[in-house]
Amino acid sequence: MSRIVVPSLPPARPSRLFFSNAMELHDLPRAAPAPSPTLAQLLKRVGDARKEATGDGGETPVHHSALDVDPSDASLEPRSLPFVLQFNNLTYSVKVRRKVTLSSLLPRSRSRLGSAAVEDPVAGESLFTRSKVLLNDISGEARDGEILAVLGASGSGKSTLVDALANRIAKGSLKGSVTLNGEALESRLLKVISAYVMQDDLLFPMLTVEETLMFAAEFRLPRTLSKSKKRMRVQALIDQLGLRNAAKTVIGDEGHRGVSGGERRRVSIGTDIIHDPIILFLDEPTSGLDSTSAYMVVKVLQRIAQSGSIVVMTVHQPSYRILGLLDRLLFLSRGQTVYSGSPSSLPLFFSEFGHPIPENENRTEFALDLIRELEGSPGGTKSLVEFNKSWQSMKQATGNSEPDRNGLSLKEAISASISRGKLVSGATNDVSPTSMVPTFANPFWIEMAVLSKRSVTNSRRMPELFGIRLGAVLITGFILATMFWQLDNSPKGVQERLGFFAFAMSTTFYTCADALPVFLQERYIFMRETAYNAYRRSSYVLSHSLTALPSLVFLSLAFSATTFFAVGLDGGLSGFLFYFFIILASFWAGSSFVTFLSGVVPHVMLGYTIVVAILAYFLLFSGFFINRDRIPPYWIWFHYLSLVKYPYEGVLQNEFQDPAKCFVKGVQIFDNTPLGAVPETVKLRLLQSISSTLGMNITASTCLTTGTDILQQQGVTDLSKWSCLWVTVAWGFLFRILFYISLLLGSKNKRR
């Protein structure tokens, strides 16, 4: 199977790897020795200088990375702008269930068993739970221009440590400190200056590599950058990631051939570094890749680090070539540090520990094998942990590890890095002392437009999804139309109309169940993008609603046109238009309800089970099977919560609203009774007898039941048909609001 390539106009290739720098660091005004300027003042100067560079301040100038700067350029300042991410005494524990037996719960058994019984819970624990330490007093540092690799066996705490550094653990659960250049990192600031690449490649399958990165640029780069410069940034990033040959290839999934695993991983990295972050966290970026692809990924990370970023990554077992690209190693074993230092110091460290590394053997493989061997021994890795502490103490005593920051504080370093071109989405002229960089790069209407365009592009390349849904609606409409073909106005026709309306309205809700997997498939993409403020959750909800409407209108028109005239419903053109609107409102409410459930339910199969069950309850309490006045008082509340009730009552009123239309005449009163089988002459004599008894003249043509009477018999009297329409629409908006609330509460993406 060949790759799927989406043709498009060839983009203009940028002449440089990154943006051209419109303002270098020497353009920054020098701060007076005293008092020290605030960050807001520094950013104001940066903004003023950018305005001068662009002429009118309307655009943020494009910039170079450190890789693209000519060292011979005399206009550049030689001084460096170091960033040091330090973490000290990080400790994190979770509560897990304790295995408890019946004998351990009985006081007599516990006293008799003594030490063999379950241990008494300590402070903070209970008889049924115990604390499991995932991080135990972890300390270290990572610097810009370097890659810090966290190594260890599965379950050693690698991903937990990266989550702790990336502020993905809830406050109060993590003990210790994380600082950047000696200053504590606030959550809001860290979101803007950093990026987190998850272990799984969370990408839209039917977008090309170039489109994926371009949408990321639309989200993360400020609107002051022109479209052409955003495209230049994307083209430069494609070259940096080594994806030029795959730029026009779709990402692909199980059913569509796309890019390779290594290319997919590099695209995942690219979506998160499009704004050139200062700190980059990666969880197992080489997992599942062959050695060549893994090496290329780490080579890309090395270039990113050399451009002035701090790169922190977890890696399971690096190859010899990858080890040569790493600058710092941090080995973990069951949440404790067993080694922290450079790869070149590994032989000396293990030699002094008493386990020298043999020649021609991979250092990391030897270290990991030794750690696993110690973990299986009675004493565990305690001896190695203690030796590492003494080793670190000796290193600190012989040399000063504190970097020279040239007197730059964190605020000064960030503002100066912004002026040199780092942190593109942080480019701002905001002088508020409480706001260093904007929370979001774009206003919500731009976010909505980009989200809508991405959703439509991805859906347009999978037309089979909408085709299957349209086919289901047309087949259902065809079956109903042929089953209830041209109903008459007899008592049996009335009953058949009621059955048709109940089934038709419930079917519109059941066909909305296919919206369930849509968000469930996008959930983790949404969480990854919103975790670092790519866009607002409200923008996602609104765009999600807007992109769903065109398909709902088309489905409603198809179902209405298929059934209304074939069944012989009443009302003419106005009746058809209302029938179409109530079907559309039903699709809208049903789609919103299922979308809300997708934000609450984590699994597709569980979601389908809940949707089918709840929709069955809605139909049961709609008023078709049992009239409203016959529903028990303790269940009447569910009748008013039923989504099927309101469109069902609306179409009934649309059909039976004409008071002059007769549905039961003369002898038809005996239909649907045992007397319906007697001869016509007997029915006429019975009708004359009833007439004389009642003292009124009832003939074979006398109208006995009108549409108004049917509505009263069905208990459809409390709302008008237009009120039913608006209530159905309101249900749809309510569930969209609940969907938004579920996204706010359920997408924190933090460990507790």
Automatic annotation (TrEMBL):
<feature type="transmembrane region" description="Helical">
    <location>
        <begin position="541"/>
        <end position="564"/>
    </location>
</feature>
<feature type="transmembrane region" description="Helical">
    <location>
        <begin position="499"/>
        <end position="520"/>
    </location>
</feature>
<keyword id="KW-0812">Transmembrane</keyword>
<dbReference type="InterPro" id="IPR050352">
    <property type="entry name" value="ABCG_transporters"/>
</dbReference>
<feature type="domain" description="ABC transporter">
    <location>
        <begin position="116"/>
        <end position="359"/>
    </location>
</feature>
<dbReference type="InterPro" id="IPR003593">
    <property type="entry name" value="AAA+_ATPase"/>
</dbReference>
<keyword id="KW-0813">Transport</keyword>
<dbReference type="Pfam" id="PF00005">
    <property type="entry name" value="ABC_tran"/>
</dbReference>
<dbReference type="InterPro" id="IPR043926">
    <property type="entry name" value="ABCG_dom"/>
</dbReference>
<dbReference type="GO" id="GO:0016887">
    <property type="term" value="F:ATP hydrolysis activity"/>
</dbReference>
<dbReference type="InterPro" id="IPR017871">
    <property type="entry name" value="ABC_transporter-like_CS"/>
</dbReference>
<dbReference type="InterPro" id="IPR027417">
    <property type="entry name" value="P-loop_NTPase"/>
</dbReference>
<protein>
    <submittedName>
        <fullName>ABC transporter G family member 6-like</fullName>
    </submittedName>
</protein>
<feature type="transmembrane region" description="Helical">
    <location>
        <begin position="725"/>
        <end position="746"/>
    </location>
</feature>
<dbReference type="GO" id="GO:0005524">
    <property type="term" value="F:ATP binding"/>
</dbReference>
<keyword id="KW-0547">Nucleotide-binding</keyword>
<feature type="region of interest" description="Disordered">
    <location>
        <begin position="49"/>
        <end position="71"/>
    </location>
</feature>
<keyword id="KW-1133">Transmembrane helix</keyword>
<dbReference type="GO" id="GO:0140359">
    <property type="term" value="F:ABC-type transporter activity"/>
</dbReference>
<keyword id="KW-0067">ATP-binding</keyword>
<dbReference type="GO" id="GO:0016020">
    <property type="term" value="C:membrane"/>
</dbReference>
<dbReference type="InterPro" id="IPR013525">
    <property type="entry name" value="ABC2_TM"/>
</dbReference>
<feature type="transmembrane region" description="Helical">
    <location>
        <begin position="576"/>
        <end position="597"/>
    </location>
</feature>
<feature type="transmembrane region" description="Helical">
    <location>
        <begin position="466"/>
        <end position="487"/>
    </location>
</feature>
<dbReference type="InterPro" id="IPR003439">
    <property type="entry name" value="ABC_transporter-like_ATP-bd"/>
</dbReference>
<dbReference type="Pfam" id="PF01061">
    <property type="entry name" value="ABC2_membrane"/>
</dbReference>
<dbReference type="Pfam" id="PF19055">
    <property type="entry name" value="ABC2_membrane_7"/>
</dbReference>
<keyword id="KW-0472">Membrane</keyword>
<comment type="similarity">
    <text>Belongs to the ABC transporter superfamily. ABCG family. Eye pigment precursor importer (TC 3.A.1.204) subfamily.</text>
</comment>
<feature type="transmembrane region" description="Helical">
    <location>
        <begin position="604"/>
        <end position="626"/>
    </location>
</feature>
